[in-house]
């Protein structure tokens, strides 16, 4: 899937209205195009937030701050990533199930992947929040371990697309403007 770009607020509103009308009008889920647009509209701000938080985390790891300051900042950053992931998951859930081949499996895959990412950030936040700051070396070793675990869990939570071969959804993601 290509990198998604954010849609204008009016375009998003019109797309969501289309999704509601399609879902209500035909008894099925939204069309593949409407669903892909909704998903990309949900993931675009999430990706931007995760990118910003990742950059901020990297800065925190190299900044000249006290362990207590670093702990406070990292707990806040990982909490933000957890919330951003939940917001994206909820928006994908609200997009419904696309009326397309393997629509249920693809939708569930996106939701599950985002939930796992959310949970990984939450565990990292909790781990760092539980670290003592009284010994800086021990604290930063604990942070490095928490970040390494987060990275492994994050990588493991990536959406496995090898079993999700919906040509209709692939085409929709390639065609809708929100996903370009």
Written overview of the protein:
There is one protein chain. The protein has 180 residues and is mostly helical. It is built from six helices and no strands. It has helices spanning 9-26, 32-62, 67-94, 103-129, 136-156, 167-175. It is elongated. The relative contact order is 0.18.
Give a brief rundown of this model.
Helices cover 74% and strands 0% of the residues.
Please supply descriptive tags for the structure shown above:
6 helices, 180 residues, disordered N terminus, elongated, mainly alpha
Percentage of helical residues?
Answer: over 70%
Instruction: List SSEs in N-to-C order.
Output: HHHHHH
Round the Cα radius of gyration to an integer and report it: 19 Å
The biggest sheet amounts to: none
Residue-averaged pLDDT, rounded? 83
Q: Care to count the β-strands?
A: 0
Summing up helix and strand content along with how strands pair, one would put the structural category as mainly alpha
The fraction of residues assigned to DSSP E strands is: under 5%
Amino- and carboxy-terminal Cα gap: 9 Å
- List the quaternary state of the chains: single chain
Q: Would you identify the regions where 5 or more consecutive residues have pLDDT less than 50?
A: 1-27
Broad shape? elongated
- Number of helices in the DSSP assignment: 6
């Amino acid at each position: 899937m290509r990198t998604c770009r954010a849609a204008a607020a009016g375009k998003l509103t019109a797309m969501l209205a289309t999704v509601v009308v399609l879902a209500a009008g035909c008894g099925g889920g939204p069309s593949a195009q409407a669903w892909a647009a909704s998903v990309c509209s949900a993931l675009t701000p999430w990706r931007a937030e995760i990118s910003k938080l990742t950059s901020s985390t990297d800065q925190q790891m190299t900044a000249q701050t006290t362990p207590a300051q670093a702990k406070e900042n990292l707990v806040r950053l990982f909490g933000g990533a957890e919330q951003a992931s939940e917001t994206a998951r909820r928006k994908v859930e609200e997009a419904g199930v696309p009326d397309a081949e393997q629509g249920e499996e693809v939708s569930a895959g996106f939701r599950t992947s985002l939930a796992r990412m959310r949970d990984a950030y939450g565990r990292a936040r909790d781990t760092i929040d539980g670290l003592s700051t009284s010994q800086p070396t021990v604290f930063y070793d604990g942070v490095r371990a928490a970040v390494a675990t987060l990275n492994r869990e994050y990588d493991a939570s990536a959406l496995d697309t090898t079993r999700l071969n919906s040509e209709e959804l692939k085409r929709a993601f390639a065609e809708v403007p929100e996903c370009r």
